[in-house]
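User: I'm putting together a teaching handout on how multi-component assemblies are represented. Below are the sequence lines for each component of a complex, exactly as they appear in our records. Could you produce the 3D structure of the whole assembly as structure tokens, so the students can see both representations side by side? Please keep the chain order the same as the input.
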Amino acid sequence: MKKQAIDTQCVQGGYTAGNGEPRQIPIIQSTTFRYETSSDMGKLFDLEANGYFYSRLQNPTCDTVAKKIAELEGGTAAMLTSSGQSANFFSIFNIAGNGDHVVACSQIYGGTFNLFNVTLRRMGITFTFVSPDASEEELNAAFRPNTKAVFGETVSNPSLAVLDIERFAKAAHTHGVPLIVDNTFATPVNCRPFEFGADIVTHSTTKYMDGHASAVGGAIVDSGKFDWAAHADKFPGLCTPDESYHGITYVERFGLEGAFITKATAQLMRDFGAIQSPQSAFLLNLGLESLHLRMRAHCENGLAVAKYLQSHPKIAWVRYPDLPGDPYYALAQKYLPHGSCGVVSFGVKGGRKAAEDFMGHLKIAAIETHVADARTCCLHPASSTHRQLTDAELSAAGVSPDLVRFSCGIEAKEDLIADIEQALAAI
Ligand SMILES: *Cc1c(COP(=O)(O)O)cnc(C)c1O
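Assistant: Of course. Below is the structure of the complete assembly, with chains in the same order as your input.
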């Protein structure tokens, strides 16, 4: 059968009910699974058979939803994690450890920046942050012999830079390492990074994928395309025997299509246990069923709000990749031709104080540490998600002190604009 459209995959992907089986995906709310013999179970512990034994590592409901996300991204394997943070942590830690190095785009989510720059540094992994606009020369100069990956966000949170995926993938591949792309803001409805050369995709499913602010979660998807074996010296964890599983070698046993996710499940989930709950996975799947419809509405509202703000005398600047004249307009047209996301960043004249005043007068848009939700919300990153960053780090992350992150929901655009209008009139 012809590859289905993304709209159909959102609704139907990952699960097909058999004769007389539930139409909706079953929630397997069980920590454990019964076996007839110890040797049946032993095979699971040796990764010799496929199956479930303990929901700290794997759960059927999570796998059903992960399969849908793999289909949406066009990947070969996927796993759900308990949060976007754990997805990004695993995506790096699965292939890098003490003494290794990663090249990361400087314009990324504040939580990811902290994870990399503080916590992973404490674990012995160093990072070089490069601008999304870095020249080919600057980009290549960031690599070292111990570099294991390149990391960036399709559309960065909250600075809304669009990653030149092909250019970053080319640099990564020239140096024999994969490109990991956090595709949270674009979602596979608007961009499938694998089509442009990315190797691994991560998500905070907490955002548009869930879409209703109901469950925190994350996902990792593997394209199956990165040839670990061709760079076996860089990736011993995937290409040499794992003693904790009786000496199996992931790439040999599971192929390029399965090695990365199997290793992350067998080692990282086993040891860190950052799995999504089956209940959350069920809610995530409900969200995915309407993702294609919601993304269109978010983008329509985002563009309408951005255009309105652009002509308002109390607004200092507006950033929205779909807005003609935006510094990332050309890249957005290339990578996100159907729209980028519903998030608009802007500055209110009068700086930090004016931004906070304005936000206090909004009635529909709520002040929340959240983004990418059906209900419009807004945040002042410099005093919240990016609070730990120095001024220099803030500016490298593309976050000015007056930046308001305005996340357009799927309400009527006229009402969102009216809300902004009355809040601006009040300051
Ligand atoms: C929110 C977010 C994360 C972190 O995800 P959580 O689900 O909050 O842990 C990572 N990356 C991006 C781009 C995000 O927006």
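A couple of points students might notice: The domain at 292-425 is CATH 3.90.1150.10 (Aspartate Aminotransferase, domain 1). The pocket of pyridoxal-5'-phosphate is lined by residues 83-85, 88, 109, 111-112, 153, 157, 182, 184-185, 204, 206-207, 216, 218 (CB under 6 Å).
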